[in-house]
Amino acid sequence: MLYLRRLLPIPERGTEWQIWQVASRANPEAETVVGQMIKWINKVRAKREELGLDLMDEVIHGMTEPDRSARSTIHAAVEALGAAR
Q1: What is the pTM of this model?
Q2: Percent of the chain beyond pLDDT 90?
Q3: End-to-end alpha carbon distance in the chain
């Protein structure tokens, strides 16, 4: 979502880690890769705070909520954007 607003590059092109490296217990570089992932997550959180107050930014803010129990669903996003028509 932040990529669509041109706030961040696609992770695969802007990071030096991949999801499988983080999840793999057999990966000898797992600790280093987790550190790189945490840096990426912090960057995402910082960019999330730069979002404005227009409807699209509010939807993106809700969908990128770190607490998954409070995160907006795609249904809520579609409903919010549909209501703006």
Answers
A1: 0.69
A2: 28
A3: 20
